[in-house]
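Researcher: I'd like a structural prediction for the single chain below. Treat it as a standalone chain; there are no partners to consider.
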Amino acid sequence: MGRPLLRCFALTLFLTISIASHAQPTLVHSLSAASPSATGRENAHGNAFKIQFSGSMGTGTLAGNLLVLKMTYTSSDTVSSIVDNKSSAYTLGPTVTGSGWTTRLYYTANVAAGVNVITVNFGSGVGDFHFSAQEFSGVATSAPGDGSCTGSGAEPISCSSAINTTASGDLIVSSGMDATGNSFLCGNTSTAITPGGSFFLDAADPFCSYGDAEYTQPSSGAITPSFTFAGNGGTFNIVAMAFKAATAGTNPTGMNIRHIEKVLVTAGMTTQPYYFVSSGNLIVVSNDVGTMNLTLGGCSPGSASPWTARVPTTGVTAFEAQIFFYPNAATSTNLMCTLKNGGSGQVAILVIYDVAGAATSPEDVDSPGSANNGTNLTDMPSVTPTSAPGIAFVALNDGTGPDSAAGGGLSDNTTYTGETDAGMFNNGDAWQHQFYTSTSALNFAWTQSDSGSYAQAFAITFKAAAVSSQVAPPTGFTVTSVQ
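Model: Treating it as a single chain, here is the predicted structure.
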């Protein structure tokens, strides 16, 4: 299947999409973000959380796929509606409440192409809020559910009863979340997160003690999803659901983004392990606060020091963003690397991108540093790639914010009503990425609420591999246990 698709794809790298030819559930795109009100962040209550789901190819969801949304929030809150820009209908799956926190799974099957904003509305303003969203091809487009389970209790956490699937080849998805009865959601750190059995991770965050996992069950029967959160004696929630496989959906082609994870770097943190859940061949890590003097290394499995760090060499040099990347990466769904902070006690965010289809030596052009103030910021920065196609990543550091992307870039922030500079998703700073197919200049633009705030931005462009080097997404049948 791969080579004929790749020959076709050579003509239209970012526009051509391939229809799945057999029933084989496949992760197309995963997005997760933590709400960092713990350890000194403002617990700014808000609502109408707009999840920016740019998808694997920068166009949102691909046609006919399954979209699964998992959320955790305080048990006193209620979801009033979930809507998106394509009027999808979201079905409530398993839900569980433990120690004051509710974890829920929603899904929509046979999704329309181009879902890129999912808005979650609550009955009132919400403090802490955590979400993840995964898109899968190869899943039944009608009545896909084939059982579910939940559990709540001490670690290791498992469903209280098994899912008894009725069909072979089911996709099983599970999500575990620390639900210890504190006033904030994150902060009970785990040293390792391991899904049970032959499940493998789609996302993981040790600071929030949270994990998403999947498994394609070869034959029907009983299955009980579970997680181990090492070093954490708290209370956990777990939700899991089975979905029937089918010849359906769409897979990405060419250079694409398989995972985006947004995680917190806490004030005063000196050393912290982070997961870089990945299956591509390039990992990019965008950090908003350059003064933290962060370094990445100590990866397992893989190289001890695979990372290249970049900051602007011209222009702004005071509080500029940092961008790390791991070229020609030995990616893994359980890749863990150690972050060290030798700088100030500020709180920062890492946005982690797992890219497939990148060139072996992917770095193309680093932008100069750029800085300005005002309500509408343009050319922040401007960068001209030397080859195409590719993907550009940019981070913006600001004084107060909140900021939002404008122009042609794809926003990686989660905006909401009532947000503040130092609020839950740290929208005082901002992130974008942009797919491009020509060597024309890329001019990034932003809108900031405080026109007097001094903002600084930095970007890097990365090259796609030659078409003959592109590989298809990994599938549930070919991935083995990574425990």
